[in-house]
Amino acid sequence: MNQFTSVNDVKDISQLVNDALTLKQNPYSQEHLGKHKTIGLVFLNPSLRTRLSTQKAAINLGMSVMVMNMDKEGWALETADGVVMNGSTVEHIREAAAVMGQYCDILGLRSFPKLQDRDEDYNEDFFNKFISYCGVPVVSLESATRHPLQSLADLVTIQETWKGEGRPKVVLAWAPHVKALPQAVPNSFSEWMCRAQQDGLVDFTVVQPAGYELSEDFTPGATISHDLDAALEGADYIYVKNWSSFADYGKILPFPEGWMLTGDKLKGTNNARVMHCLPVRRDLELSSEVLDGPNSLVIQEAGNRLWAAQAVLKGLLENLS
Ligand code: CP
């Protein structure tokens, strides 16, 4: 692996899941790989899980870790070429990324979408420029359109907990929110589940109110539904997440009552396990009853962020040496 920005960077997702679960059993077995290697984690947006799990993963592999909160501590970056920098931006991404690449063997980057211009966000302009100028392998800590470390941890959690016959039915279910949120987590989860479906590991459904359909680029082969109760019937895993509209880009559209997952809605499922990437707004996005109940996997899922990150960093380090 020479970068980790999407499922497309991974040849064999089952092997990567196995690596994560093996590291979970023996966290320090690969400590030698990161000796005298440094990872720089660059954040343009807040984080709890991604920041701490990736730091801990790097430490477990023997790496040194540097964290840069670019939004608060760095110079304001210019990304456009051919402009006279006589405004508020102080440093061009060409130099900033290249300099960080001088100090680090691997870089991680988090950069959320602005949700104003769909083409600009979906072109991943900032992310791609950072990758091309820094000159070292990059791991996505969440980009405008994807959150692959989260999705890998999600797949690890499903594989780790599934004890049934055949493939589990996995449902990505839209949930209400008061803010317009990116599509990065659901895009990425869908992309990984579609690959897992291709590999015979899951059956995958996405359910959302009309107007909230994800880009078809991220849902190849998925069953798409607008009926929550019908989609949840027989579900083994429900992945709850809000996202703003892709079609009416970045907008919160009106939606019917009844989209928050409650204990009552679990009755038609196959005693489904409930997942969420966190942070979650209680009793808005997901009921406390479900979050605190026996079907919730959210803490185990967040714990698996560590092993997912460690498996990815291991793959990147092996490719360096
Ligand atoms: N799920 C997730 O990425 O959490 P953070 O935003 O706290 O890193």
TrEMBL record:
It catalyses: N(2)-succinyl-L-ornithine + carbamoyl phosphate = N(2)-succinyl-L-citrulline + phosphate + H(+). The keyword Amino-acid biosynthesis applies. The keyword Amino-acid biosynthesis applies. Keywords: Amino-acid biosynthesis, Arginine biosynthesis, Transferase. Pathway: Amino-acid biosynthesis; L-arginine biosynthesis. Gene3D superfamilies: Aspartate/ornithine carbamoyltransferase. Signal peptide: none annotated. GO terms for biological process: citrulline biosynthetic process; L-arginine biosynthetic process via ornithine. Residues 205-314 form the Aspartate/ornithine carbamoyltransferase Asp/Orn-binding domain. One of its GO terms (molecular function) is ornithine carbamoyltransferase activity. Its EC number is 2.1.3.11. Carbamoyl phosphate binds at S47, L48, R49, T50, W75, R110, H147, P148, L149, Q150, C277, L278, R305. Catalyzes the transfer of the carbamoyl group from carbamoyl phosphate to the delta-amino group of N(2)-succinyl-L-ornithine to produce N(2)-succinyl-L-citrulline. Is essential for arginine biosynthesis. Homotrimer. This is N-succinylornithine carbamoyltransferase.
